[in-house]
Design a protein that fits this description.
- The chain is α+β, with helices and mostly antiparallel strands and 280 residues long.
- It folds into two domains: 2-189, no CATH class; 192-264, Alpha-Beta Plaits (2-Layer Sandwich).
- Helices cover 61% and strands 11% of the residues.
- A four-stranded antiparallel sheet has the order 2-3-1-4, with helices on one face.
- The chain is elongated.
Length: 280
């Protein structure tokens, strides 16, 4: 529990630092509630962190009804910590006065902070909560994609409010980078390879992979479409760094083996992760 709360706090501080030190001083709205808060803080004499907290209140009620008190408390903590961090750090000189640098590094920091909070089982509020609701209905869409769709309108709004097309472009850059960083952190570590091996020496290859490469295999029964003869088909999933040595062992057993390699963004099961770990 302590690790969960410390992780939530760390991610919220990173998120708040991105707003207070990079994005808000340069008038860049990263999307979502944070982006709307940046716009409102320019229009009214209230800190971006304070606006972030106020705008999240209605969404907190939804999260309470949907996921209960534990989720509400952790999300509320992330919102308050990120809001306070943004306001306090916003009192310091900005890390950069160059909009392009602020958009790139601010967007990356937002994506990293949100990802850390997500991994702790919480959210930073705003469109993160809406994205999690949509994720239940559209599980095939990544969090980054959902947030990109929702927050793109905020980037457009920032251009209208500031009457500056360049501002909207900087906001779009920050949003795009944040969602790409988010997907890389949340899903990139699960990137793996799946291979299909068609060979008459499937038993020998299976032994080599199981006991010398520690790679699990499933033997499927196949029939050659050309000759009509029986052939073995191996289905294997592995970490991508294991692929070169696995390929060498397969070819050492059968130089004529047919190997089909494809990427697997997520793998559940022994040696990888379980379904209970897939918050996102």
């Amino acid at each position: 529990m302590l690790k969960k709360w410390l992780t939530t706090a760390a991610g919220a501080i990173i998120y708040g630092a991105a707003l207070g030190l990079l994005l808000a001083p340069n008038g860049i709205a990263p999307g979502g509630v944070g982006g709307i808060s940046v716009i409102l803080s320019d229009l009214f004499p209230i800190g971006v962190g304070t606006f972030t907290v106020l705008l999240n209140l209605p969404l907190m009620i939804i999260s309470l009804v949907k996921w209960g008190w534990r989720f509400l408390l952790s999300t509320a903590a992330a919102i308050v910590i990120s809001g306070i961090s943004a306001d306090l750090l916003g009192m310091l000189p900005p890390l950069s006065s160059q909009p392009i640098l602020a958009a790139v590094f601010g967007g990356a920091a937002v994506g990293a902070g949100c990802s850390v909070v997500f991994k702790s089982g919480s959210t930073t509020g705003g469109t993160d909560i809406i994205s999690r609701l949509l994720k239940l209905k559209y599980p095939y869409l990544s969090f980054g994609t959902l947030i990109l769709m929702l927050d793109g309108a905020v980037a457009l709004l920032s251009g209208i409010v500031y009457r500056d097309a360049e501002n909207a472009m900087y906001s779009a850059i920050a949003l795009f980078i944040s969602t790409r960083v988010m997907d890389a952190i949340l899903y990139g570590s699960d990137s793996a390879k799946m291979i299909l091996v068609i060979s008459r020496r499937s038993r020998e290859i299976t032994y080599e992979l199981l006991y010398k490469e520690n790679v699990g295999c499933t033997i499927l029964k196949g029939v050659s479409g050309y000759s009509g003869t029986d052939t073995g088909v191996l289905l294997c999933a592995m970490k991508k760094q294991s692929l070169p040595s696995v390929r060498e062992r397969i070819l050492a057993c059968d130089r004529r083996a047919f190997i089909l390699v494809t990427s697997a963004s997520q793998i559940f099961g022994e040696g990888f992760k379980t379904g209970d770990d897939d918050f996102y």
